[in-house]
Structures are given as structure tokens and as C-alpha cells.
Amino acid sequence: MEEKETALQENKMGVMPIGKLLAGMAIPMMVSMLVQAFYNVVDSIFVARISENALTAVSLAFPLQNLMIAVGGGTAVGMNAVLSRSLGEKRQELVDRSANTGIFLFLISAIAFAFIGAFLSRPFFGTQTDVAEIVEYGTVYSQICLVGSAGIFSQFCFERLLQSTGKTTLAMITQLIGAVINIILDPILIFGLLGAPRLEVAGAALATIIGQIVAAVIAIIINIKVNHEIHLSIRKIRWDTEVARRIYTVGFPSILMQSVGSVMNYFLNRILLSFTTTATAVFGAYFKLQSFIFMPVFGLNNGMVPIIAYNYGAKRPDRVKKTIKLSLMSAISIMAVGVVLFETIPEVLLGFFNASPEMLEIGVPALRIIAINFLLAGFCIISISVFQAIGNPIHSFIISVCRQLLVLLPAAWLLARTGVLNLVWLAFPIAEMVSVIMCLTILKGTLEKVDVLTEQQ
After folding, report:
1. Phi/psi of residue 391, each to 5°?
2. Is residue 13 over pLDDT 70?
3. pTM to 2 decimals?
4. CB 360 within 8 A of CB 416
5. Which of 23, 192, 271, 385 could disulfide-pair with 301, CB 3.0 to 4.6 Å?
6. Count of Cβ atoms closer than 10 Å to residue 322 Cβ
């Protein structure tokens, strides 16, 4: 009887059946990720209706936005892993320090990006183009998004606090509310509907930050009212060297990994431009389309990481291994759907972007070739997150750098020397095969590390 009462008092991540637990935590995040992918596409469609220069300006702002997302997402991954592991170890004091220090780190990040947005946006665009309209549109868009970055950083922080204690449905609700508000406000503020002023690109930026701020406020309220496993205190929101080190030991490689993706995109576009500008349009369309396949897997990751971290901290290797196995099976199944779609109806997928005959000629074989790597990518995405959850984030970083900078880009450059554009797309499956080999090797060692927990029991 006493044992049963103890189990009931424990966080559900330590007692609920893994299949039900993973589904309950991951599905809400997968849904919210799909909504994120959807409103990003809708946002681009609305901006494109202003003018091609407006769409170009927003596209050129991607490196700054991606850097902001990289810092917020990486810090959130670190805070999530440290906090969940501390919950599993029953170290309440460290749980609270992790949460309050995490809030402080997000506040500092928001201040830093507000400074970048206010003073460096115009010089940033000036280094990319001399077209006055693009520079003006881009400057306004970046200044609003970055100066108002407190919204996205607060959203990252307080939604991940909910995720770290297993309340992913509540985190999903806040994300959905923010996304819906963004989608509704986009046409109203961009085109001046319902009596609102026509703000064009500035309207798109305002719609984005308003959605983020509303979602963040709701997440804060839910944490205070419902998330009783974490004790937040304004007085304790301050720098803590030990906790910050723990958070960034896990999170900093994630920040670097996402930043590496921006570098890869930039140089791959340069390679494709040597063939035709349409090739870069195809690459851009591919990234929009693949987000609908990859985003659910990233949502699965968000649900998986706290489960693994909690049970690793609680020294329950059987639950850790079962979570990994189910996550791998789920990710590969999702990717299989993507393979079927990209291989069978690439013309329909590209049609969403009003593809020209030339774009279809280039894009149809491109999508079919790139889709070869989807199943491999599903395995790698889960493996990399397992390394982060168990405390080996450097492995994740090494694999990401090798895949995108040391394999994919050199392979694409060498294949481009042949003068055959279709061969360039083979760089994706080539890079993914190398990544799988690395993941298999490191995952074997990680599972051996998990086995040590059995000996300690």
C-alpha cells in the first residue's frame, strides 16, 4: 500500500506506461509543430502578395530570425533536460534553481536581440543588397521582430517549463493560441482590413510578435496556476553560475547546431545559383514542404526528451530504452509518409507555390531524390536528441557539423562540378548516410552508458 501511494505521488514520467506516456506528451507537441509549419507558409503567402521585394526582404531576414530561434530553442533544450533530470533525481531545490535561472537567461537573450534589432538591422541588410525598398522593408521587419523578441523568448521559456513536467497538452494550447492569433492578424494588419491601417511588412512583423506575447502571457499564467512541481519566484530570477553551466552544457551545442543550418543554407544557395535562380526557388519550396514532415518528428522529440531525462535521472534504464525504441519507430513511420508523398505527387506539392514549367522540371526530380534520405533522417533526429537528453550534447553537435558542413556542402560542390543539377541533390542522402553511421556508433555507446544504471540499482 505504501509503495502504491509513493508511485501515485511521483511524476507521471516515472510511472505511466511508456507508450501511453509518449503519446500523451508527444502528440500535442506534434500538432503544435504542424500548426507552426502551417502559419509560416501562410505568412509567406500573405507577404508575397505585397510585392516580390517584400518577400525577398522577409527572406533575407532569415539569418537574424534563425539566430534568435537558435538561442531560444537551445537554451530551452538545456533548461528542459536539466530540470527533467532533476525532477527524476528528486532534487527539488535544483529544479527550482533551474527554472528561475532559465527565466533570467531568456530575459538577457531578449535584451541582447532587442539591441541587435534596434541598431544593427539596417547595416545587416545593407551588406546584402543595395535595393532601397528591400533594405527598408527588411529593416522595419527585423527591428519589430527583434526589439519585440521578449515575446518569443518568454514563449520558449514558459512553454518548456510546462513540457519539462509532462504538461505538453497545456504547452500545445499556448502555442496554438499564438499561431491562430498570428494567422488572423496577418491579413488584417498587412492589408489594412476591418478598419486597421495598411502596415504591409510591418503588419506581418507585428502580427508575429503579438501572437508570441499573448501565448507567452498565457503560458506564464498556466505555470503559476497549475505547474506546482516548479516553484517560481521573482526574487530568485537571477544568475546562477552552476545552473547556467548545466543548461548551456546541453543547450549550447543545440544553439550551434541550428546556427550551422543557416550557414549550410547560405552556401548551398550559392551553389544552386551557379545553375539557375529557379534552382534556389525549388530549394526554398522544398524547405517549406519538408517542414510538414519534419516538424511532427521535432514535436516527438520535445515529448521524448523529458521522459528520457527524467527516467535516466531516476535510474530506470528499462524505461529509457523503451522510450528510445518507440520514438525511433514513430519517427521512421512519420518519415515514411513523407517519402510516399514526395515520391508520388511532387507536382501537386510544388503546385502550392504556383510552380512554373521550369520549376516543375527541376523540382520534381529534386523532391524525389532528396526524399530518399527521409527515413535515415528520422533515425538521426531521434538519436541526436537522445544524446542531448542523457547529457552528451557534444556528440549531437559533432554529427550536425559533419553532416551539414563537412559532408553535404563539399558533396554538393563536387557534384555541381559535373554541370548536372540533378546530381547536386544527391548530396542530401550522401550526408544522411554518413550521419547514420555516426549515430549508430555513438548510440551504441550511449545505450551501454544506460546499462550501467542497471548495475547501480
Report:
1. 105, 20
2. no
3. 0.70
4. no
5. 385
6. 18
Q: In terms of DSSP H, where are the helices of 127-240?
A: 132-147, 150-164, 168-191, 201-226
Q: Say how many CA atoms lie within 13 Å of 157 toward its Cβ.
A: 26
- Cα–Cα nearest to 367, from 382, 379, 355, 378: 355
Q: How far apart are CA 48 and CA 285, in angstroms?
A: 14
pLDDT tens per residue, range 307-359? 888 887 777 888 888 888 888 999 999 999 999 999 999 999 888 776 778 87
CB atoms < 10 A from the CB of 419, how many? 9
What is the rounded CA–CA span in Å between residue 239 and residue 231?
Answer: 17
- Report the amino acid identity of residue 350: L
Is pLDDT at 177 greater than 60 in this prediction? yes
The DSSP-derived string for 230-264 is S---GGG-S--HHHHHHHHHHHHHHHHHHHHHHHH
How far apart are the C-alpha atoms of 409 and 329, rounded to whole Å? 29
User: What does the pLDDT read at residue 437?
Assistant: 92
Backbone phi and psi for residue 68, each to the nearest 5 degrees, phi listed first: -65, -45
Nearest to 87 by CA among 99, 75, 105: 99
Check residue 336 and give its pLDDT.
Answer: 94
Residue located via cell numbers 531516476: 314
| Cell numbers found for residue 194 | 476591418
Nearest CA among 301, 389, 312 for reference residue 27: 301
Looking at residue 248, its pLDDT comes to: 87
Q: What is the CA radius of gyration of the chain?
A: 22
Residue pair 312/453 in contact by the 8 Å Cβ criterion:
yes
Q: 315 CB contacts (<8 Å, ≥6 apart)?
A: 453, 456, 457
79-121 pLDDT, tens digit each: 888 887 787 777 788 888 888 898 999 999 999 999 999 999 8
> What crossing angle do the helices spanning 277-313 and 357-370 adopt, rounded to 10°?
30
